[in-house]
Design brief:
Elements lengths: L3 H6 L8 E4 L2 H8 L7 E5 L2 E6 L4 H7 L4 E4 L4 H11 L4 E4 L6 H10 L3 E4 L1 H6 L6 H22 L8 H14 L10 E4 L20 E6 L2 E2 L2 E2 L2 E6 L5 H19 L7 H14 L11 E3 L6 E5 L12 E4 L2 E4 L3 E4 L2 E6 L2 E4 L11
Parallel strand pairs: 1-5, 3-4, 5-6
Antiparallel strand pairs: 1-2, 2-3, 7-8, 8-11, 9-10, 12-13, 14-17, 15-16, 17-18
């Protein structure tokens, strides 16, 4: 079995003799350890990692398969030395992570041609290794614990911002090392906005409250959404919630390695459409996640490619009725040969606080 550095080396050939890794995500994937700042060059016969004095000790102790260099203010000189030593004339680079200014600077200063290879570099991350899955399971466990705790803190009269602050506290308290993204915490009519921003609105009895959140654990993301009701829920609220839950369960049932993203999305979307709410489900069923909160492949109507074995994807259908309310329920699942493994364990029946 190839390690991650060897996977990247498999992209090298007579045309492209090296990879220039500039994103934190690809550098971490290659080294299997996170150094927040630096650059890496991977060649057929060697790999070099360049950082500065703030990170050099940690890099020397923890980076697998890399020679570590402190570039000491001469980054381009160090990079060009590596290009020469590793006999590189063309570098595959991450075009999604360089600004135009950075690309112009590097392509002018470095003594190699540049070839965009983001798609090829990212492709390996679609299938998670066992150690990656272990980290993601741990991250999901943290979100589960945080959700259980934050539900004890929700009360009438607190603002969305105050609830978001409590949620963030619970995420860190329960073991989160960072946030996967800024949490979405919305209430009442604001829940009809899938990516609404927490505001000053006060929670009221009869509100739906939607919380979408995740943490980073050892570099890997979790993601989870739960919609709860405060005080009571109307019959219409219960009907919409039940529809979303049935849609999610249908999508999960259709999830297995080899199923296309379109098939999985369609299984959930059919439930919502048949219940009469099709126009209120605008986004896709789910996305992959890992080192980043949004990765490929995705469970969307446009993805007709099969989802690979050990892909990790969200399962998050929703219904959003403008100016009234919205519901989203989100778990994270691992695609396996004969189904999928759900690694989110918080209850999904409607919780009324």
């Amino acid at each position: 079995m190839m390690n991650n550095l060897e996977k990247y080396r498999s992209l090298l050939n007579d045309e492209v003799q090296g990879l220039f890794l500039t994103s934190r995500y690809s550098r971490m994937y290659a080294a299997e350890f996170d150094i927040s700042e630096g650059y890496a060059i991977v060649g057929k016969d060697g790999a070099r990692y360049f950082t500065d004095s703030r990170y050099i000790e940690s890099a020397e102790k923890n980076l697998k398969g890399f020679e570590v260099y402190d570039f000491q203010g001469d980054l381009f000189g160090c990079l060009n030395q590596a290009i020469s030593d590793l006999k590189i004339s063309c570098l595959g680079f991450e075009e999604n992570y360089l600004t135009v200014g950075e690309f112009n600077l590097f392509s002018n200063k470095l003594q190699a041609e540049f070839k965009p290879m983001q798609k090829e570099i990212n492709a390996f991350r679609a299938c998670k290794e066992p150690w990656e899955i272990d980290r993601m399971i741990k991250a999901q466990e943290i979100t589960d614990r945080a959700f259980a705790e934050v539900c004890t803190r929700i009360h009438e009269g607190m603002s969305e911002k105050e609830l978001a602050a409590e949620l963030i506290y619970c995420l860190y308290k329960n073991g989160g090392e960072g946030l996967s993204f800024d949490p979405i915490v919305v209430s009442g009519p604001n829940t009809s906005m899938p990516h609404g921003v927490p505001g000053d609105r006060k929670l009221q009895k009869g509100d739906f409250i939607t919380m979408d959140f995740g943490v980073i654990y050892q570099g890997y993301c979790s993601d989870m959404t739960r919609t709860v009701a405060l005080g009571y829920a109307t019959d219409e609220m219960k009907k919409v919630y039940d529809t979303v839950l049935r849609a999610q369960l249908a999508g999960i049932a259709a999830s297995h390695a080899g199923a296309t993203g379109r098939e999985v999305d369609g299984a959930a979307r059919d439930v919502i459409r048949e219940a009469g709410y099709g126009q209120y489900f605008g986004h896709s069923y789910g996305h992959s996640l890992g080192l980043e909160i949004h990765e490929a492949p995705n469970c969307t109507p446009k993805n007709e490619n099969p989802i690979p074995l050990h892909a990790v994807c969200s399962a998050e259908p929703g219904i959003y009725i403008p100016d009234l309310f919205g519901v989203r329920i989100e778990d994270v699942v691992i695609f396996e040969e004969n189904g999928c493994k759900n690694i989110t364990h918080s209850p999904k029946e409607l919780i009324i606080l």
